[in-house]
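thought: fold this chain, then report.
action: predict
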Amino acid sequence: MPSLVTAAIAAGALARSAQPTVPAGEGVTLRPWRPDDADALMEAFQDPGIQRWHARRADSVDETSAWIEGWRAAWQAETDAHWAMAATGADRLLGRISLKSFNLVDGTAEVAYWTAPWARGGGVCTRAVLAVAGWALDEAGFHRLELQHSTGNPASCRVTAKAGFEAEGTRRGAALHADGWHDMHLHARVSDGHG
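observation:
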């Protein structure tokens, strides 16, 4: 059946190129994950804070290696894009930021992130969200980015506000965490000139 709309992002447009490295300012670079990140990823996922808000833990380097493999493959499949937040120059892992659940026709994706415990408190996450949103909306052709976080996570709410994601409401009982169902705040940014 013919479509009445042209896709916001043509199929294949992203996968034709290598996943970009995105500068995030003040010593932070967003780069594609590499196989040699598995040990640092395993270390980060021992943090109770990451486990609390992401409902996942890592039990082995083999497991984190498999995650990285999947994240790298997602770019070619045009389903998601996952970046390591890394210290520019030193290349120490600072966290992860992702665009998930691509809808290329509508030009939408969801932003997700975490920051390693050794990198918190310096604005790393906010800079990463600003950088990935700028790339997605200004360069890649996305129209709308959504960001959700538990209503019990005020630090994440501050990041979204600083990164220009407007609050749109609360999704009741929308995510299952280890301690039960959480209401989720929904925030979004829309590309300039499109509402």
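thought: worth noting. The chain has a mean pLDDT of 94.
final: tokens above.
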